[in-house]
Amino acid sequence: MERAKIRLHVDHPLGQGQAVPLTQDQAHYLFSVMREGPGSKVALFNGRDGEWTAEVAEAAKKGGRLVCLEQAAAQLNPPDLWLIFAPIRKERTDFIVEKATELGCARVLPVQTDFTNAQRIRQDRLQAHALEAAEQCLGTYVPPVDDLVALNALMKGWDPARRILWADESLVGPAETLSGLAPGPWAILIGPEGGFSEAERARLRGLDFVTPVSLGPRILRADTAACAAITLWQAALGDWR
Amino acid sequence: MERAKIRLHVDHPLGQGQAVPLTQDQAHYLFSVMREGPGSKVALFNGRDGEWTAEVAEAAKKGGRLVCLEQAAAQLNPPDLWLIFAPIRKERTDFIVEKATELGCARVLPVQTDFTNAQRIRQDRLQAHALEAAEQCLGTYVPPVDDLVALNALMKGWDPARRILWADESLVGPAETLSGLAPGPWAILIGPEGGFSEAERARLRGLDFVTPVSLGPRILRADTAACAAITLWQAALGDWR
């Protein structure tokens, strides 16, 4: 069966013969915008059950029903890697969420730091952005995006079993070899533009579960650092091996 | 001496006591926009001589003169890595040039492929974008951005001494260990959205100097693939070691 060109994220369970109701927005998109109708094939994913090819069984103005025919791709969950980052300008924040989704992070945690300008974030908008990134890159997993928390509060309640790889912008030199790191749950921590404050740096240096790492001899923007750190972790400990 | 906050790229040689004339645009920016004047400190780089702290010696409406006081950062050239990529939408093309500059590529070569929409590029705009990326990230090197050439023509005249790491989107599986690759001059090749055509793939597979590599089990956008491939190469063979 040819892979369907239109791809939709649904909340409904997916499986052989499973009927899936459409929301009004989805029905509008499918039948009015894309001009599809009964018999059309659509790819569905819900973040848990892989990708399914479904057929339009009923099309109406304000709803509709699809039926799952066969699984087109198995569920691909990311390794147990979280990304902690300090939101920066809107465009670059969107970019970081997009890249975390594409490169395979399991969860995204925006944090407020001493040099972060953002007092709050549009969590719903960022979550929608992660979903869109998964939709576009044929991903079957959408990382949950948390609401903004203060870095200090996050570190206070942190489970030390999950180690943190800290992209320490003061370590401008040869990068650590990440292949020496222990496997297990990890999080990558990326600072805002302007880096971390001295107080934050002292605190991070004092935490046993935090490993500072250098990302080469150049100064990287926060979004570039996020891409580079996730890539190195994936190649050393993740599912790129 | 404190690092100057304003950073300018100039074409002029830089060195101890060297006088550097300002263009009309630079004078306007420094004296009218930024309200600087005689005695102000400015950071200068020209892509060859590192970064210099200079002092404004003369300020006029349509020009001016700076004098270099001391070198603030040594010249940091990238390793001998080129990036070949197929221009996509404007925003993502800009992004690839920016990331190639930040992550440390020596040259950027946009290519036209069977699935590339672009018939021509604004080379001057992309070059300015590389310069801006270096300016903002305190880089001292600006990679030259070539004009658009056809992939076939580029491969025909290619010096086989420079090996090509081809991010082959059909290899969706565990990534190669790049640490096994031989050092020397390299280029990374990233395809457009939609990948390479079958004819292009067959041709690339037949070239001795081309090594296909996988970037993990997920489908990556072209800009993400560029970031990931440069990162892996830098960590394995470049100056991130």
Automatic annotation (TrEMBL), chains A, B:
Reactions performed catalytically: uridine(1498) in 16S rRNA + S-adenosyl-L-methionine = N(3)-methyluridine(1498) in 16S rRNA + S-adenosyl-L-homocysteine + H(+)
Pfam families per record: Methyltrans_RNA, PUA_4
Enzyme class name: transferase
Keyword tRNA-binding recorded: no
Boundaries of every Ribosomal RNA small subunit methyltransferase E PUA-like domain copy: 22-63
Alphabetized InterPro entries for the sequence: Alpha/beta_knot_MTases (IPR029028), PUA-like_sf (IPR015947), RsmE (IPR006700), RsmE_MTase_dom (IPR046886), RsmE_PUA-like (IPR046887), tRNA_m1G_MTases_N (IPR029026)
Protein name listed in UniProt: Ribosomal RNA small subunit methyltransferase E
